[in-house]
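Quick illustration, no need to memorize.
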Amino acid sequence: MQINQCLHGAILVTDLNRAEHFYGEVLKLSKTERSRNFPGSWYQVGEYQLHLIVAASLANHPQNEKWGRNPHIAFSVSDLDAAKERLLNYNCPIQPSASGRRALFTQDPDGNIIELSVDS
């Protein structure tokens, strides 16, 4: 077996409107059509899809000091400083990468961790 590409990732959210604001407005991801009969939203990121699935509750992240050691989604950005400024303008929490590389971590309203980094 050979894996050719990642098609999608799914994360759980508790409030779809709040999550759609974060992923659609703050991160500026493009919402795409979905044909499922359960609450959620799909976002297109290049050839990759991010699926938001509504859940009644979520487990807490075990690693609070280094968010990158928790399950997370990573997105490449062209300008990390602009991304950081945008997140701060929306009062999103920020944590720099503990490794010292050009990356930062934030959390969506449900505490799902998002990594933003510049490809080098």
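The longest helix spans residues 16-26.
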